[in-house]
């Protein structure tokens, strides 16, 4: 569970940012030497009026060609047209071993001719229609014409042909650009898949309520990673034999990602107003299942339903994605305004993701052609926000477990102490009554004998009587602990009582080389026994005096905090270690050589009967502070 603490989250974010930014430097053309560009070419649409112009018949007429300038608007293909010819003329080439690079061609099937010689050919049985072409040319090809036949059955794409200017330069450099373009998306997708696998494996070790959150997040990140890997032209150009598999993986990841995201949001923030998140999730699950079945039917029928399938899984699905993300963004913003930090993190991530997806989709639906680059940045920010959310949630769970463990340990100690005190109180009550009477009889006889003996023997008798009195006091303490009674319950003025106690104890403190200082607020009242209250305070002050060193000091402060009266007695004595603090109040435990430990035990019991609470803080070598809290008496 500690895996997703702050340091690990920083590492994950660093990995994502490296995966996003490092590859961008791999395919920059700014540093290419001796490069040329072709910005103008011609295109001829193939329709019912030109049935003979197929991929095997190069147009030999100079009529019917439409001039195109890449620095201006690219012409849209006419309605119903699925193929076209493109013609361009090579400029004067001054070097050998050159490459002709076409960065983006919208076409599913392509045949390229250098004059009348075929130099490139690609045909696919899947619907991906973004390609890149790199041809080798030499000086002897200067001024020659290149003819390109292009076919794109995808009617929803408004373009057939080149979308960017043509680049001529060193073949090796262009090959490097050709091979490394889109590599950033592949690496980033791989990073997402790796992170998703870590999250999913980690979920095995989590508790039940945390497993679902971890699995939902892992599925969201995994599907986004698969979309990153299968969406760029790279995999379809260099691994064209697996193009159908990549398209299928892309569609399945897309269908799963949105329901998983809605479920993750529901687990983190709840079902929303009138269960809106739950209802959206259920609807999206049903629609995703419909799209999945439609994909299976379309694949089994050799893609004859491409047009309706594309409409259902791209156009309609895209609209639903916008609706869902906008809804999540609005709900998170509302929660963020109520100072919910989790909602603030999620709303920032989903807002960036939503805005980037919306811009990409609007551009695509408006112009039919777009490279979908903005959503990459939005997705990175979104995944980072999801990881931060999971990290915060797991850290919160860990903190709760730590708190519960601490409380459980404290309750266990209190339970053991209560059981021990209960046994002692029962034992003390039963023994004290049986022992006190014989002690009193023995004391009486000793007094009689002392009156009839000489001085030397009388001294021994008085010593024996003192020890009997000491034993009687111990028995009284036991009885007070076992069956504390507050005979005269009155409204006690804390200020007056503490002043009287200070007057009693100050001379004893002065004899030990110390002093007592009072800091008292006004109007401090509690309910209880005045005698018992004095017994508690005197006992605590007496312990502080006995712990004095050189220049001893006791500071007594009393004040009111809302419905409580708080009394703090602080000294600069020898203090105690943590082990001694834990044992305070136990019978027969004392830090003094002649102490029995019964004084503090009785004091704690009296405070408890008066509905108070005692807390002791101490540092070895620095001193001790006793804090007593009583309910305020109106």
Short description:
With 634 residues, the chain is α+β, with helices and mostly antiparallel strands. The chain is built from 15 helices and 18 strands.
Radius of gyration: 44 Å
Give the C-level CATH assignment of the largest domain.
Mainly Alpha
- Please tell me what the overall shape is: rod-shaped
Biggest sheet overview = 6 strands, antiparallel
Strand arrangement within the widest β-sheet reads 3-2-4-9-6-7
Name the CATH architecture of the largest domain.
Answer: Up-down Bundle
The average pLDDT is: 80
Say what the CATH topology of the largest domain is: Rhopdopsin 7-helix transmembrane proteins
Computed structural class: alpha+beta
Uncertain regions: pLDDT < 50 for 5+ in a row? Answer: 1-6, 18-27
Number of strands: 18
**Considering DSSP H and I runs of 4 or more, what fraction of the residues is helical?**
40-55%
Tell me the fraction of residues in β-strands, as a range.
Answer: 15-25%
User: What is the overall number of helices?
Assistant: 15
Kindly give the count of domains: 4
Question: Span between N and C termini?
Answer: 50 Å
Q: Could you characterize the architecture of this molecule?
A:
With 634 residues, this protein is α+β, with helices and mostly antiparallel strands. The chain folds into 4 domains: 2-22 and 183-393, Rhopdopsin 7-helix transmembrane proteins; 33-180, Sandwich (Jelly Rolls), CATH 2.60.120; 407-482, Helix Hairpins, CATH 1.10.287; 489-631, Heat Shock Protein 90. Helix content is 54%, strand content 18%. The protein is built from 15 helices and 18 strands. Strands 3-2-4-9-6-7 form a 6-stranded antiparallel sheet, with no helix packed on it. A hairpin with a 2-residue loop joins strand 6 and strand 7. Helix 6 (243-269) packs parallel to helix 8. The longest helix is centred in the middle third of the chain and has 78 residues, at 374-451. It is rod-shaped, with a radius of gyration of 44 Å. The model is unreliable at 1-6 and 18-27 (pLDDT under 50).
